[in-house]
Design brief:
With 449 residues, the chain is mostly helical. The chain has a domain of 211 residues. Helices cover 81% and strands 0% of the residues. The chain has 19 helices and no strands. The longest helix is centred in the middle third of the chain and has 37 residues. The N and C termini lie far apart (57 Å). The relative contact order is 0.11.
């Protein structure tokens, strides 16, 4: 077994273990907080976090991927220049938070947004000072340290949120939790690599390389935001904040497999493929597809279970205020399958320096959600809106599949086989469920009307 493969396997194990522990913490915290806080608070925070994430993505110049992918990724001058750009960007993003707070509060007729956006937006300044050691460890697949680092921040955030909510069940518990996580990771990040400390620097060649690679990252992340987060921005105008909070609970649970594959893609697949780009395209394609097959099979099984029985989890663990999330969860779960096909391959295009296909795919995904969501809501209410969200990864997958074909990395045959197996799994699981008298997962739609 090659050293690269050993590192990739070890990195995969650490990523899955870290993600699993993270989800247990998040799920447990979520269950406690939903009993202490009103759904409206979750809806408000979903809107605020979506808006701030948008500012992040509309200013993303690809510092992290540049460090992972660039040949100078271990050069201190390159790293310090990247860190300097990261700090400048963080300050600019927070300034945008200040300037946009009032118009956003007016748009949604919610005075609390006037102070929520600047306060929550402080995270942009805090995280901008994080050490580039985080990306260096990712570059070399030292994911054990990264998993512990990320879990540490989440653990302290969970403790802070629960204790604050117990004594003061207000939106401040959610705000403070996020800031505690950011401060913990900031301090910790500068101790990840002994003897290494970032300092301000400016190297023109490094700046040029980062911006040359990052221009497509910038465009991609900007349209990615519109494609993946516009649902909450649009729904914030169409439905109440209470129902938006319920939708947020269903969405977070439904996208857990997507988050796991996304973590594997950025932490394992990208750095591993970046070390194989010297191979010919046919050789690279064979290696990528061989290692992708077991990931797709595991994903198919996980999504099947989530889509078939996720509604029972909602009804069993959450109170009646969140019951509508029960029918939303299976629909949203089925919708992430095209995203999993896309996510397991998109880093191949990034590694070979062709992120432009994803940019175009995200643009069409953005059009789908911005046009389809209001139409779906006008025709079928919240059911139509959720259905549109579930279908929003189809345009993205189509464009990226075309890009993979053009670059000699096509995966169509493997995708078709995996999709057929997924539907077989789903049919069998639903048949078992119905045979036990539980009906279909979407039956809750009719009960909630």
């Amino acid at each position: 077994m090659t050293s690269l493969k050993q590192l990739a396997i070890k990195g995969t194990i650490w990523t899955i273990a870290g993600f699993g522990t993270s989800q247990i913490l998040r799920f447990g915290c979520n269950l406690i907080l939903t009993r202490l806080l009103f759904p409206k608070l979750f809806g408000l925070m979903a809107l605020v976090n979506t808006f701030i994430l948008g500012l992040h993505l509309f200013s993303d110049i690809g510092v992290g991927p540049s460090i992972i992918q660039n040949k100078r990724g271990d050069d201190p001058t390159f790293l310090n220049t990247a860190w300097t750009l990261q700090v400048i960007r963080g300050l600019i993003v927070w300034l945008c938070c200040l300037l946009s707070a009032w118009p956003v509060a007016q748009l949604y007729a919610e005075p609390q947004l006037l102070w929520l956006i600047p306060v929550v937006g402080l995270s942009t300044i805090i995280t901008s000072f994080n050490s580039t050691a985080v990306f260096t460890l990712n570059r070399h697949l030292a994911l054990g340290q990264l998993a512990i680092f990320e879990l540490g921040g989440q653990f302290f955030a969970t403790i802070a949120m629960i204790f604050w909510a117990l004594f003061s069940p207000t939106i401040w518990s959610l705000v403070i939790g996020g800031l505690v996580a950011d401060i913990t990771r900031l301090l910790w990040s500068h101790r990840l690599i002994s003897g290494f400390h970032n300092r301000f620097a400016w190297d023109r060649q490094a700046v040029g390389a980062i911006f040359a690679f990052g221009k497509w990252i910038f465009l991609s992340t900007a349209v990615t935001f519109l494609g993946t987060q516009a649902d909450r921005l649009i729904l914030g105008k169409l439905i109440s904040f209470e129902l938006l909070g319920v939708y947020g609970i269903a969405f977070a649970l439904a996208t857990m497999p997507q988050q796991l594959i996304g973590a594997l893609a950025s932490k394992v697949i990208l750095p591993a493929i970046s070390k194989l780009t010297h191979l010919s395209r046919p050789q690279l394609r064979v290696k990528v597809l061989q290692n992708r097959r077991p990931i797709l099979m595991a994903s198919a099984l996980i999504v099947t279970v989530l889509a078939s029985f996720g509604d029972m989890v909602i009804l069993a663990l959450y109170d009646r205020r969140y019951s509508q999330a029960a029918w939303m969860l299976p629909i949203l779960s089925l919708g992430i399958w095209p995203n999993l096909l896309f996510e397991t391959l998109r880093q191949s295009l990034v590694a070979i320096g062709k992120p432009n296909y994803e940019t175009f795919g995200q643009f069409f995904k953005c059009l789908h959600i911005c046009i389809g969501l209001p139409l779906g809501f006008s025709w079928m209410g919240i059911v139509g809106a959720v259905t549109v969200v579930a279908l929003n990864d189809l345009p993205l997958y189509g464009i990226v599949a075309y890009g993979l074909w053009r670059e000699g990395l096509t995966s169509i045959k493997q995708d078709v086989i995996a999709t057929v197996i997924f539907f077989i799994f789903l049919t069998c699981m639903l048949a078992i469920r119905v045979s036990f008298g539980f009906g279909l997962p979407i039956n809750q739609i009719f009960l909630s009307q």
